[in-house]
Every structure is written in structure tokens, then in C-alpha cells.
Write a structure and sequence with these properties.
Distance between the termini: 21 Å
Shape: globular
Radius of gyration: 14 Å
Order of helices and strands: EEEHHEHEHHH
Low-confidence stretches: 143-151
Structural class: alpha/beta
Helix content: 40-55%
Largest sheet: 5 strands, mixed
Strand order of the largest sheet: 3-2-1-4-5
Amino acid sequence: MRALALDIGQKRIGIAASDASGTIAMPVCVLPAGEVMSGARTFRRVLEDYEPDILVCGRPKTLHGEDGPQAGRIMQQAHQISKMCGIPLDFMDERLSSAEAKRILRSEGMSEKQMRGKVDMVAASLFLQTWLDARRAGDDSTDDTPSDDNS
């Protein structure tokens, strides 16, 4: 099962994908949020290249495990993208994924300016890897069950 992860932000959406076996997550790209939300050619090309069976979107949680202030907006946008693409949707806690992505990129010697376009796709690959590992382990620690109705 190939999964495509979306780290939805107000300006940009980081995209990561799994390999065909659903074992390893890798960063793909960052696209302007408007291009993804409108189904622009750049996003359609990503869908064609990776042919995902499921979308996994980051769900922002607080450190106490509750939905964060952006969760409602992000979940609504994720459902819109899922419906537009006709691909089932699942959510994964993205808590601290951006901070961890910045730490990784900093350790590779990148400046804040160099990181700007990469943080979102690395964050998406981090929470996608957690989602993949949980599925492989048979663990139900993903946030929600897949929304097969695409609503």
C-alpha cells in the first residue's frame, strides 16, 4: 500500500510518500497550499507519479494530546483534498514533527533560510514513517480510522 502524506500549512503543504511496500517514507516536495487545494497540475502530477492508495494528513495536537487550534481547519482541508482526489484519508498526530524536521535539517548544516522550503516535506515524512510503522506492527496508534467516504 502506497501512502502519500500531507503536512498542511496555511501557505505551503509538505508532501511525502511511502515506497510501494509501505515500509519507508521519503520527502517528496513542498507545494503552495492553493495549488494542492485547487488540484493544480503540479499536485496532480504528484498523484500520478506516486499513485497513492491512501492520504495521511498530519493532525496537529497539543502536548496534552488534544486537537490543537489549527486542527479543525486542517481536517476540513484534508477532507476536501481527499474528496477531490477520490483517495481515502487517515490522520496521524504530527506533534513536534516540524521541530524534529528542523533539528534534522540543522544537523545537516542548513541555515533557517535554506530550511524554509524543506521543513514541511521532512515533517510529512516523519509522521508518515510513524504511521507506516504503526500499521506494520499491527498497532492501532494512528489517529483515526480511514475515512473511506471521502467526506
